[in-house]
């Protein structure tokens, strides 16, 4: 019997199919996904154009700000990809149907992460391509390490999104605004637009515990020193394993709490 | 749907000393019951009697504070994934995604339940439940009655051995409701399914159920076949029995009869 399978790609695929149907039926949703990354890229493109003439630091690597904003959007969109996909189930009052189906909670986690990857690529790729003709900046010029940086931000964003989804499951839709705002608490610590060395000493240990710090340091290493810092990508990946495991365990724990408190049939607007 | 000689114990549903507390509130207070394989049982009770909490514990989405639930011989607290594929349910407390068309919703749930020959199954269910004309329409655009039929189609997709229905004919006009009840009867007889229905509709329970469990304040206060209960309470309809139970008049009835 399939229901006894410990992991079923078919069930994960069913969840993906449900959300791909939503995207397919709504071109405004697709447009919305790509809209903010595009606007951000335009804004930071003009800021870069200005700063290149007025800042030695930016002039050394003119793509640093646009690359940073595009990579930050990977983190932000990956977070939203998980949390909003989960929220859509709550808004649709579909959570109860899912949890009485044979879909296992950890299959739901895998499906949320995969859906987040799809949404993030749809979000960020158009802006990344358009930055080339508009501002002469190609994030792809970061070279092969770009794939590792991208994957690390994707993983970290998914972990953050999953933790938020767990909180929304526990505390209800009153906590949904966390999906949009929580990740911004990481921005000052992640050294998105500046080297992490500018942070005060007492913040450094916290910052260095974030995978995103090592990703943005890796990005600057490519742009300023032309160095492919695989060590930083590896460190970020190791940290991501910890965050991924922790967020998954936290989500599974919150599912159990929701079952104890009878929350799964009550969720919805 | 692949039906590989499923194990069919004599009692498809066994609940023993089931308790559910939410803080200081005891929603279900030590109920025990069994539902014979292939039979239909009704859970009757007023609002807050514990019907939905009981159904939720049977489905495994609410964990009991104490007691046990076995469905088709499987412990629903510890091993519910072994049996969820052979179960299904429908409830007005949950929806199907409204932006998806009827066919898309049924396809998604068909995949989740591992239904084989899915397109044919959806076509047949749509014909049976008179949904063919709506298959390509967004589920949210349908009337409440049409959505109830879609929810029933989803609940029957996998030909479940155990079907839990919460208010299955809510929002349906009397004609359609009667037709749906007939369809549920046909389904039960075809699959030898075990059905548990929580309902406020006494005519529905009287027609469909072999046995009725009367719930009040989280406890089973009486049980029996519909006609047996009607006779025992000296009433003409199950609705009158329900009112006796809901208003705690059993003692008075017995006293008057003794």
TrEMBL record, chain A:
Keywords: Cell membrane, Membrane, Transmembrane, Transmembrane helix, Transport. The chain crosses the membrane at residues 33-52, 64-87, 108-135, 141-169, 178-196, 232-252. It is found in: Cell inner membrane; Membrane. One of its GO terms (molecular function) is ABC-type transporter activity. PROSITE patterns: ABC_TM2 (PS51012). It holds the Pfam family ABC2_membrane. One of its GO terms (cellular component) is ATP-binding cassette (ABC) transporter complex. Residues 28-260 form the ABC transmembrane type-2 domain. It is a multi-pass membrane protein. Signal peptide: none annotated. PANTHER family: ABC-TYPE MULTIDRUG TRANSPORT SYSTEM, PERMEASE COMPONENT, NODULATION PROTEIN J. Belongs to the ABC-2 integral membrane protein family. This is Transport permease protein.
UniProtKB/TrEMBL annotation, chain B:
Belongs to the ABC transporter superfamily. GO terms for molecular function: ATP binding; ATP hydrolysis activity. The keyword ATP-binding applies. InterPro entries: AAA+_ATPase, ABC_transporter-like_ATP-bd, ABC_transporter-like_CS, ABC_transporter_ATP-binding, P-loop_NTPase. Keywords: ATP-binding, Nodulation, Nucleotide-binding, Transport. Gene3D superfamilies: P-loop containing nucleotide triphosphate hydrolases. The keyword Transport applies. It holds the Pfam family ABC_tran. SMART domains: AAA. This is ABC transporter, ATP-binding protein. Residues 13-242 form the ABC transporter domain.
